[in-house]
């Protein structure tokens, strides 16, 4: 299937109004993959107008829930039909190993549409027991309206799907705006929505940079913004949304602690933490990044995880032997290198990694998996989100200090506990402030489980039935029966 490099507005593929374009690059080589239209303010206006027209059109507004469910199911079928092409496109544009694209990203996108297809017929109101005689009160769940769905570059297809599917299930219309670094699979998904029969204007797609995103978040015709990305940008979106009090949901940064108790199976903890830290080259907001290890086990843990990290095969995502691919961009390489320098300057011990590889990989955006030991809570590598393959190992002596130290952060997206003791697991899960706590496992996602964070990790929840709340308004209806 040919992927348009144009904007999808009102069911038509169009160039940017001013003809602007930008290039997207292969992170494994640094070479251009293709040229994509760059939306400007007039394109944003046109997309919002198209979405509003479609929202008000009875063909969508009054579509029976079962019919809407069939459309979402059809999108899932098409994702599976084009799974190989989607996976290869995701790998080429983002850099992730093809095994992650095929085994995680594409299947999760399809499952999101199937899960929310089931919700279409289950969005219900309720009858309230009001105390006013001769009066009936009931509630309706209605769509919010025109929704701007702004997605990041780390898992482009899956995150677009877990925003788009519930928004459509609730009867909203949308403007998808992918990150400029990784636009291609989102454009592909928009194309599949048209092929599935979703009416023109219900799904619009604008490619472009921060200016396009800013125009969407400030637009008075947008009723809701759903954003995944950095905490810094999330704060700007909140300020922009104040102009017309549009609804906002945010899934932002993270600095996930992983606690390794004295009784933990160290080999299992090493294997799980390595995967949890280096999935997608550490470019995951729930990546395990700071490890609190019992002081009697910390040397063993450090030695084993450093040895495992240094032996990981790096390479292009399309290579079947690759375990860790490149970072998404040169900018991200420079960010990771900056934090590595800070770690050394602030007194952490660099155990392994800490540099870009040479040889055949020198032209791409690769960075070695990096392990620091002797890290303290006040160091930048222990406090700030790096979004790269940097692991910081801290030790502890008293288990009572674990929750306060894990919570000593502005973030609260995810956390992990490695222990054989059920009491330890439950107590830490209850006292750590994070949206998701994983015990002896990787940071998995599932359509049925809510996803989001505390504090600077965002507002609201995505996935599960909680996403229905995010994309609906509750209306009360009063009936005088007297």
CATH homology group of the largest domain: Aldehyde Dehydrogenase, Chain A, domain 1
Sheet with most strands: strand arrangement = 14-15-16-13-12-18-19
Largest sheet: 7 strands, mixed
What is the mean predicted local confidence, pLDDT?
A: 96
CATH class of the largest domain: Alpha Beta
| Residues in β-strands, percent | 15-25%
Number of strands: 22
> Over all CA atoms, what is the radius of gyration?
23 Å
Distance between the termini: 62 Å
Class derived from helix and strand content: alpha/beta
Tell me roughly what share of residues is in helical segments. 25-40%
Could you say how many structural domains there are in total?
2
User: Oligomeric state of the chains?
Assistant: single chain
Instruction: Indicate the low-confidence ranges by residue numbers.
Output: none
Shape: globular
Tally of separate helices: 16
Family: Belongs to the aldehyde dehydrogenase family.
InterPro entries: Ald_DH/histidinol_DH, Ald_DH_C, Ald_DH_CS_CYS, Ald_DH_CS_GLU, Ald_DH_N, Aldehyde_DH_dom
GO molecular function, one term: oxidoreductase activity, acting on the aldehyde or oxo group of donors, NAD or NADP as acceptor
Keywords: Oxidoreductase
């Amino acid at each position: 299937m040919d992927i348009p490099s144009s904007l999808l507005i009102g069911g038509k593929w169009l160039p940017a109004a001013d003809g602007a374009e930008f290039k997207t690059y292969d992170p494994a080589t640094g070479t251009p993959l293709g040229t994509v239209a760059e939306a400007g303010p007039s394109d944003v206006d046109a997309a919002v107008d198209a979405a509003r027209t479609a929202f008000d059109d009875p063909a969508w507004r009054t579509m029976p829930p079962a019919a809407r469910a069939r459309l979402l199911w059809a999108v899932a079928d098409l994702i599976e039909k084009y799974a190989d092409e989607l996976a290869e496109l995701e790998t080429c544009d983002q850099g992730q190993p093809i095994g992650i694209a095929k085994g995680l990203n594409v299947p999760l996108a399809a499952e999101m549409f199937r899960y929310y297809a089931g919700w279409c017929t289950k969005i219900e109101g309720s009858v309230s027991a009001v105390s006013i005689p001769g009066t009936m009160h009931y509630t309706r769940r209605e769509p919010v309206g025109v929704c701007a769905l702004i997605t990041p570059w780390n898992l482009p297809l899956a995150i677009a799907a877990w925003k788009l599917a519930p928004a459509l299930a609730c009867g909203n219309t949308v403007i998808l705006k992918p990150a400029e670094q990784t636009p291609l699979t989102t454009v592909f998904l928009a194309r599949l929505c048209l092929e599935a029969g979703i009416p023109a204007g219900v799904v619009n797609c604008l490619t472009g940079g921060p200016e396009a995103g800013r125009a969407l978040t400030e637009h008075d015709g947008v009723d809701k913004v759903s954003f995944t990305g950095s905490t810094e940008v999330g704060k700007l979106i909140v300020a922009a949304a104040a102009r017309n009090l549009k609804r906002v949901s945010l899934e932002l940064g993270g600095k996930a602690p992983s606690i390794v108790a004295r009784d933990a199976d160290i080999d299992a903890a090493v294997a799980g933490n390595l995967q949890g830290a280096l999935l997608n080259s550490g470019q995951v907001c729930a990546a395990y990044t700071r490890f609190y290890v019992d002081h009697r086990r910390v040397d063993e843990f450090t030695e084993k995880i450093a040895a495992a990290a240094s032996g990981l095969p790096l390479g292009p995502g399309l290579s079947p032997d690759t375990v860790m691919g490149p970072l998404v961009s040169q900018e991200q390489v420079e960010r990771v290198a900056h934090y590595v320098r800070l770690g050394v300057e602030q007194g952490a011990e660099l155990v392994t990694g800490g540099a870009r590889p040479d040889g055949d990989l020198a032209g791409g955006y690769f960075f070695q998996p990096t392990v620091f030991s002797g890290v303290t809570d006040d160091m930048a590598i222990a406090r700030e989100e790096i979004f790269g393959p940097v692991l910081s190992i801290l030790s502890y002596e008293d288990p009572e200090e674990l929750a306060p130290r894990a919570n000593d952060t502005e973030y609260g997206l995810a956390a992990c506990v490695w222990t054989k003791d059920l009491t330890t697991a439950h107590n830490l899960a209850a006292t750590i402030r994070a949206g998701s706590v994983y015990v002896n496992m990787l940071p998995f996602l599932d359509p049925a489980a809510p996803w989001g964070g505390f504090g600077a990790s965002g507002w609201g929840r995505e996935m599960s039935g909680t996403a229905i709340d995010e994309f609906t308004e509750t209306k009360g209806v009063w009936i005088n029966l007297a």
